[in-house]
Amino acid sequence: DELRRRDEIHWHNEVFFWEDELDDNGVCRASVRVRVMPTFWFVLLQCELRVDNVLIRDVSTRFFHSFGSDHVLREWTWREVPFQALKEKGLQIAGNPAISQMSVGTILLGEGDVKQRLRHHLPVKAGV
Questions:
Q1: Pairing label, strands 71-82, 55-66
Q2: Which one, of 123, 122, 52, 121, lies nearest residue 84 by Cα?
Q3: What strands lie across the sheet with 71-82, from one edge to the other?
Q4: CA 123, CA 120: separation in Å to the nearest integer?
Q5: Spatial distance between the Cα atoms of 104 and 40, rounded to a whole number of angstroms
Q6: I need a labelling partner for 23 at 20 to 30 A (CA). Which of 41, 90, 103, 122 fits?
Q7: How would you label 90-100 residue by residue, b for 16+ Cβ within 10 Å and e otherwise?
Q8: How far does the chain reach from its first CA to its final CA, in angstroms?
Q9: pTM of the complete model
Q10: What is the pLDDT of residues 28-53, one digit of tens each?
Q11: What is the pLDDT of residues 79-127, one digit of tens each?
């Protein structure tokens, strides 16, 4: 619920670790986004992969810590969908703005495309 609130952003940044166009057969990239709000911080570490006419995959790790809490929440998610499944859903692949040189297409992935999800509570020592 805290992530949905429209609190002031104290600090944020995004860093791209690497990107490869797979010899013009898609794109693979890794990035991290960090956001610090008045009552919490949030980190998204993401590896996105699109192999043209084969699949779209997103492997993400999210970290969330509410200030004053004794733990960090960590969620690791693997989502993947073959291009054929997108076509069977009636999605137009050619010319789709979600699939471009700038966009891997992971926005097309939904809850039904989750292959595995793990959630953990990581303890944090007081004063850290």
A1: antiparallel
A2: 52
A3: 11-20, 26-36, 40-51, 55-66, 71-82, 114-123
A4: 10
A5: 29
A6: 90
A7: eeeeeeeeebe
A8: 24
A9: 0.86
A10: 999 999 999 999 999 999 999 999 99
A11: 999 999 999 988 888 788 888 877 888 889 999 999 999 999 999 986 6
> What is the spatial distance between Cα 108 and Cα 95, in angstroms, rounded to a whole number?
14
Is residue 18 pLDDT above 70, yes or no?
Answer: yes
Q: Which two tokens stand for residue 66?
A: 């509410």
Q: Coil, helix or strand for 94?
A: coil
- How far, in Å, CA of 47 to CA of 69, rounded? 28
User: What contacts 86, CB < 8 A, 6 or more positions away?
Assistant: 56, 93, 108
Task: Give the separation between CA 93 and CA 125, rounded to whole angstroms.
Answer: 48
Q: How many helices (H) and strands (E) does the chain have?
A: 1, 6
- 83-94 tens-digit pLDDT: 999 999 888 887
Answer left, alpha or beta for residue 15, where phi above 0 means left and psi between -120 and 50 means alpha.
Answer: beta
